[in-house]
UniProtKB/TrEMBL annotation:
This is Helicase SNF2. Keywords: ATP-binding, Helicase, Hydrolase, Nucleotide-binding. Residues 291-449 form the Helicase ATP-binding domain. One of its GO terms (molecular function) is hydrolase activity.
């Protein structure tokens, strides 16, 4: 055998060793995370069991257990039952062997369920030795980035191929090996040498030796000091939690991650490939499924709840199609998030974003048509662009509920492009705001036949039937189902008794018959405003706790009043409203996020309630109730979203009686409708019309009721209790 064969074998051996090293280095980094996670997970599970009351044992056994005397003996939690064991239980009067065994069996079942579902939360404000160790261990994997995962996957495949080939090529490695080997073995050795050479050449052309070497360096670099690790965690917490979920193997329930799709649809999605060559970010399991759904079904609505990473899923689809040779894509979005889209495309993929907006948009459009890339434009600009004859591999429509009205010009423009493109991805966390018919109009752009089959008779069948009917084009997942790491979200309705000046301003608005003035009346006279006084208290308390606050209102006039009331109290950013250009809007958010201490940002609900990331804030104030539940949900989701590391507290300021009380009741009805039809739900009780009124009708009815009430007629609007009502979500 000659030198060429020996060099081929030596090159294969070096590549094989480098691949094995990468797999081993990654395995040790993963083991370090698991070693740090186990005690934290055990402590979290134990804490939950210690707080779990005995009544939960009855839930497991259908109420058949006799627990009289158990609580009186000091065993008042499931955790204490497990500690006590059978002997201690049998010492309790009335508890025999059989009952003791049943109690312990029920407690163990609950312990198993807790072990499977309990989540470890990393509190950035209260670091402890155990959580610090976990963050430092995770930092190694996060720092190595998605390239490390790609390198490990390639290395594992290469190791599996090269190992057997090197064994088979053994006789060709020395001068006399081939002489001593039999004919069959010599033939196998020569064939193996040829295959090794091909594997080495292919790996070298793909840059794998360098990738393996760099990945090993990254994995062996070691973690940073405690302070640096926590700072990085706060900046990239979504990546940390994503890796923690992957390493722990505690993925969300598969059915929930797949949006509870029918099995025949889900199975076709699972087998869909997803190329990550042009992607720079790792996906969570549910995100990968969402991208595959869009690819497999071609024209779909991705209706994930706010904060679950719909943008990343869209970029994953773009990257996959780009790897397949496609090079022209278009993203249509509100102006407020145009800058964010270009940033995300640049940061999370190798694709070229092309901004099709502003004075030079026609020149940019021509450049995009010839040079390709991801065109990013607004609904308004889209109306001025001709639908090109060239292939557009994917049309992404962000905040697609903006085109629910088929008569609107923006809807008609999107419909023209949708008809031209073979693949379309509508993205919205609120596919239906008021009526199921609005959702049907979205589906009509993507699948006219399906939309035509959804008649008014489908609605009374209930949400389960409705969701099944639209499953071919609609995928939705909720935060509670797939993001176990999200910190708590607490809503507080702050009912304030109107001051004398508030009452006077409100009566003037009612006499004028102005619904909007009625909604703003609580801020019309700032010097005596009860709501404004409570808002200052909330902001001051947040500042004392080192927290940032976002204040939302539907009205610029109210935001101006709030800015004046907070002047001198702490730094105030904004307001973010419809008049602020997209680039300036993002700059305001960046400044608020980068502020070193407590700060406030003011935002108009409809201008900043979509697409903008305000997770630097952990306190949210809604100056008044909105006319649509989705407006409030979107606003809160700007802060309570993937990547949030602190509990979020939401304060909704309400005046007792009058317009606020009526709106709160209307919101409750609309929220039920949304939950039944846009979220997964087993409730099938009513048609949409039974719980909904259109906004003009709502405003007219409230004005008439208030004019009657304040004019001396019997009150038709009950006054809610001024006590503050809190609910946890």
């Amino acid at each position: 055998m000659g030198r060429a064969e020996r060099e081929a074998i030596a090159g294969g051996a070096r590549l094989h060793e480098a691949a094995r090293a990468v797999v081993g280095d990654h395995g040790r980094a993963v083991d370090a995370v698991r070693a740090a996670l186990v005690p934290l997970h055990e402590a979290a599970a134990r804490a939950e069991l210690d707080a779990m009351p005995l009544a939960r044992l009855q839930d497991v056994t259908g109420g058949r257990l006799r627990l009289t005397g158990v609580a009186e003996s000091g065993l008042d939690s499931v955790g204490r039952i497990l500690d006590a064991g059978a002997y201690r239980l049998r010492q309790i009067p009335g508890i025999g062997r059989s009952t003791a065994d049943q109690v312990l069996a029920a407690a163990r079942r609950l312990a198993e369920a807790v072990d499977e579902t309990v989540a470890v939360h990393l509190d950035v404000d209260r670091p402890e030795p155990g959580t610090t160790a976990l963050v430092r261990a995770l930092h190694v994997l996060v720092g190595a980035g998605p390239e490390a995962r790609r390198a490990v996957d390639r290395a594992a495949v290469l190791t599996g191929r090269l190992g057997p080939l090197l064994d088979a090529a053994g006789p060709a490695a020395g001068r006399f090996g081939m002489l001593l080997a039999g004919r069959e073995r010599r033939e196998r050795a020569l064939a193996a040498v040829a295959e090794i050479g091909a594997e080495v050449r292919e790996a070298t052309e793909a840059g794998l030796p360098g990738l393996f070497a760099q990945t090993s360096v990254d994995l062996l670099r070691g973690g940073p000091d405690e302070a640096a690790a926590w700072v990085d965690f706060e900046l990239r917490s979504a990546e940390y939690y994503g890796l923690l979920t992957e390493v722990s193997g505690r993925e969300p329930d598969e059915a929930a991650a797949e949006g509870f799709l029918p099995e025949e649809i889900a199975e076709r999605v699972r087998v869909q490939g997803l190329d990550d060559t042009h992607r720079r970010v790792a996906l969570r399991g549910y995100q990968a499924f969402g991208a595959r759904f869009a690819l497999a079904r071609r024209k779909v609505v991705l209706g994930d709840e706010m904060g679950l990473g719909k943008t990343v899923q869209a970029i994953a689809v773009l990257a996959h199609l780009a790897a397949g040779g496609h090079h022209r894509f278009l993203v249509v979005c509100p102006a407020s998030v145009l800058v964010n889209w270009t940033r995300e495309i640049e940061a999370r993929s190798t694709l070229r974003p092309v901004v099709l907006h502003g004075p030079a948009r026609r020149h940019a459009f021509a450049d995009w048509r010839t040079g390709g890339g991801v065109g990013v434009t607004t609904y308004e600009a889209l109306r001025g662009f001709p639908v090109p004859d060239e292939e557009v591999a994917l049309l992404v429509v962000d905040e697609a509920h903006c085109v629910k009205n088929p008569k609107a010009q923006r809807s008609q423009a999107v419909a023209r492009w949708t008809g031209r493109c073979d693949r379309v991805l509508f993205m919205t966390g609120t596919p239906m705001e008021n009526r199921v018919e609005e959702f049907r109009s979205l589906v009509g752009m993507l699948a006219p036949e399906l939309a035509a089959s959804l008649t008014g008779a489908d609605a009374p069948a209930g949400s389960v039937a409705f969701r099944k009917a639209v499953a071919p084009v609609y995928l939705r997942r909720n935060q509670a189902d797939v993001l176990t790491e999200l910190p708590s979200l607490q809503h507080t309705d702050e009912w304030e008794e109107p001051s004398a000046t508030d009452e006077a301003a409100y009566r003037e608005a009612v006499r004028a018959g102005s619904f909007m003035a009625m909604r703003r009346a609580a801020y019309a006279r700032p010097e005596g405003s009860a709501k404004l006084g409570r808002l200052r208290e909330i902001v001051r308390e947040a500042a004392e706790n080192g927290q940032k606050t976002v204040v939302f209102s539907a009205f610029n006039e109210v935001l101006g009043t709030v800015a004046g009331a907070l002047d001198g109290l702490l730094p105030v950013h904004g307001p973010l409203d419809g008049s602020v250009p997209p680039a300036r809007r993002q700059a305001l958010v960046d400044a608020f996020t980068a502020a070193p201490g407590p700060a406030v940002i003011l935002a108009q609900v409809h201008a900043a309630g979509t697409g903008i990331n305000l997770q630097a804030a952990s306190v949210v104030v809604l100056c008044e109730p909105q006319t649509k539940p989705t407006a409030e949900h979107q606003a809160v989701a700007r802060a309570h979203r993937m990547g949030q590391v602190r509990p979020v507290r939401v304060h909704r300021l309400l005046s007792t009686g009058g317009v606020d009380a009526s709106l709160v009741r209307a919101l409750e009805g609309k929220t039920r409708l949304f939950d039944d039809y846009a979220r997964r739900s087993a409730v099938a009780e009513a048609t949409p019309d039974a719980v909904d009124v259109s906004d003009p009708d709502l405003a007219r009815r409230i004005v008439e009721e208030e004019q009657a009430r304040l004019g001396g007629a019997s009150p038709r609007v009950p006054r809610p209790s001024p006590a503050r009502q809190e609910t946890d979500a």
